[in-house]
Specification:
The complex is a heterodimer of chains A (about 140) and B (about 90). With about 140 residues, chain A is an alpha/beta fold. In chain A, about 25% of the residues lie in helices and about 35% in strands. Chain A has 3 helices and 10 strands, in the order βαββββαβαββββ. A 6-stranded mixed β-sheet of chain A has the order 4-2-6-7-8-9. In chain A, β6, α3 and β7 form a beta-alpha-beta unit. Chain A is globular, with a radius of gyration of 13 Å. The mean pLDDT of chain A is about 95. In chain B, about 15% of the residues lie in helices and about 25% in strands. Chain B has a 5-stranded mixed β-sheet, covered by helices on one side. Chain B is α+β, with helices and mostly antiparallel strands. Classes of the chains: A alpha/beta (about 140), B alpha+beta (about 90).
Chain lengths: ~140, ~90
């Protein structure tokens, strides 16, 4: 399960729309070892593409430091799919950096954004998990 | 003088669970060599067999991505902080 704070959720969805027509991406942080994403760090898509994304390395470093200063750590990554289902692509699986992370995908294909979250094992196994929005 | 090396969560298991470790070297390559001598399980995680930076990691000296410095040949004076983070990408 991934629990998303209302603030992190709003920031993530806003960043995904702001990124159109390109894919948008960013990082999620929360207390170490928890399933709570309480902070969203929007990042630049260094790939500058509507089909793939690369979290800008400097944005990642800044997010990592800020999270640490607040007693948190990066617990996952989000990115948008502009025209397809919110399901991990083979590229997402091949590049998944950490089996403990939450992989959140926001599809902007329909009128309303659709958010799903996955765990991706070192063996490439994809497991969907529930996403719970925390009250403000 | 040893430099601090900050490890990403996914690599801490290979360094006794530590988030930051110390290593010696006048260049980044020497620092990573020293790191592997201390923690043999880190071998191959940051530097590839042919001696290049692994494409799955980003390495920083202080605030700079070393791909825009001299990569593994980046010189160190000893008061830097080295950070290793996973490269995060997908489709």
């Amino acid at each position: 399960m991934l629990r998303l704070s209302a603030n992190a959720y709003a920031k993530m969805i806003g960043h995904c729309y702001d990124g159109l027509p390109l894919e948008a991406c960013g990082l999620l942080a929360g207390p170490p070892g928890s399933t709570d994403a309480i902070t969203c760090y929007p990042a630049r898509n260094a790939a500058n593409s509507s089909r793939v994304y690369t979290v800008d390395p400097i944005d990642h470093l800044k997010a990592d430091r800020d999270a640490e200063q607040h007693g948190n750590e990066i617990i996952g990554v989000f990115h948008s799919h502009t025209h397809t289902d919110p399901y991990p692509s083979p590229t997402d699986v091949a590049n998944a950096p950490d089996p403990n992370w939450h992989y959140v995908i926001v599809s902007l294909r329909d009128d309303a954004p659709m958010t799903r979250s996955f765990r991706i094992g070192t063996d490439g196994k994809i497991t969907e998990e529930a996403v719970v929005l925390l009250a403000r | 003088m040893p430099v601090d090396v900050r490890l990403p969560t996914v690599l801490r298991q290979y360094a006794g669970g530590q988030a930051t470790v110390k290593a010696n070297g006048e260049t980044l390559r020497e620092v990573f060599h020293d790191l592997v001598l201390q923690f043999p399980q880190l071998n191959g995680q940051v530097v590839t067999e042919d001696g290049n930076l692994h494409r799955f990691v980003n390495v920083y000296v202080n605030d700079d991505d070393v791909r825009f410095l001299d990569k593994l040949d980046t010189k160190l004076t000893g008061d830097e902080t080295i950070s290793i983070l996973p490269a995060v990408a997908g489709g």
